Please model this.
Amino acid sequence: MSSTDETPAGIDAPVGTDQATRDIAQVAAVEVITTAAVHLMSAAAVKCGLAEGDDAEELKDLDEARKLITALAALVVASAPDIGNQHARSLRDGLRSLQLAFREASVIPDAAGEGPGEKYTGSVV
Model:
């Protein structure tokens, strides 16, 4: 028994790829986008020092948080027209909370409009 399936392009792919493709094809775009956004939010929260537990401060990394929040802002702003107000509103609220948490955690504050993701969302202060 072979450990690969032949793909249409003639490239060997792991067994089960066709099933995985069918499975992901059944997931609505809104669900994929919101899931990606939630992952970015969770990672950014940890990097802002908002994790629960005694090691929250050790996990804080504002440089990493800035990158994650900027990516989240770009995703939220770009996808908002397509995912609908109900989904976009909660993502915007979470994004804004993270942007404010970043400002609070930062020793050297960014100028208004210069914080993470603010080139996409506008200033949060």
User: Anything to note?
Assistant: The beta strands are 4-6, 12-14. The helical segments are 17-25, 29-47, 56-59, 62-83, 85-105, 118-121. The two ends are 61 Å apart (CA to CA).
